[in-house]
Specification:
It contains seven helices and three strands; from the N terminus they run αβαβααβααα. It has 181 residues and is of the alpha+beta class. A three-stranded antiparallel sheet has the order 1-3-2.
C-alpha cells in the first residue's frame, strides 16, 4: 500500500509513518540552507551560548575545510593560494572573536565576526514526506557540494533501512550518477 501511495504521489499519508531525526556536523552555511525547510524542527549549536574563547573550546573556533575540487580551479597554485586565503580569513575571525571576548563583549555580539564556515552541529526532525522533499532538493547537482556530501549518503542509508519509502529517490540519485559527482 505504501509503495502505491508513493508511486501515485499521495505523500500526505506518509506523514503518519512518524518522524526521522538526524544530527549533522557541518558548517553554518550548510545549516542556513537546511533550516529553510519549514516543515521540520531543528536544534543547532548556539554561537550565543557557546563561548569559543573559553577552555571548553581551547579558545579556538573550528571550521570545516573547503575541499580543493569544490573551488573549480584547475591551476594547483591557485588552489593553494585559495586555501591560504581561507586559512587567513578564519585566523583573523578567530583573533577578532577572542579579542572581543577578552574585552568583555558578550558572546551574542562577538559572534558577529564568526565565519559562515564555522563548524556547527544541527539536528533535524521531519516526517517522511518532508524528508523526501529535502532529498529531492538537496541531492541535485544544483545543491551546494557540502549539502550533497551529507545528504546523498544519508539518503542511501535510509533507502537501505526503509526501501519502500526511499529507494525510488536513491535509485534516481544513483542513476543520475552523475548526480553524485
Amino acid at each position: 500500500m505504501l509503495k502505491y501511495i508513493i508511486a501515485n504521489g499521495h505523500l500526505a499519508m506518509c506523514e503518519f509513518v512518524g518522524d526521522i531525526v538526524v544530527t549533522f556536523v557541518s558548517n553554518r552555511g550548510f545549516s542556513h540552507e537546511l533550516v529553510r525547510h519549514r516543515l521540520a524542527s531543528f536544534a543547532q549549536e548556539s554561537t550565543r551560548y557557546c563561548d569559543y574563547n573559553n577552555e571548553e573550546f581551547n579558545s579556538r573556533i573550528s571550521v570545516l575545510p573547503v575541499p580543493d575540487d569544490w573551488m573549480k580551479l584547475d591551476d594547483p597554485i591557485e588552489i593553494i593560494e585559495s586555501q591560504q586565503i581561507f586559512e587567513t580569513a578564519y585566523n583573523h575571525a578567530e583573533e577578532a572573536y577572542n579579542e572581543l571576548r577578552n574585552l568583555g563583549v558578550p558572546t551574542e555580539i562577538a559572534r558577529e565576526v564568526l565565519p559562515i564556515g564555522l563548524k556547527t552541529e544541527v539536528s533535524i526532525k521531519a516526517n517522511v514526506t518532508e524528508w523526501r522533499h529535502i532529498f529531492d532538493l538537496r541531492t541535485s547537482k544544483r545543491a551546494h557540494p557540502r549539502m550533497r556530501q551529507l545528504m546523498i549518503p544519508l539518503l542511501l542509508e535510509l533507502a537501505n533501512m526503509v526501501p519502500i519509502v526511499f529507494s525510488d529517490l536513491a535509485d534516481r540519485t544513483r542513476n543520475y550518477g552523475r548526480r553524485l559527482q
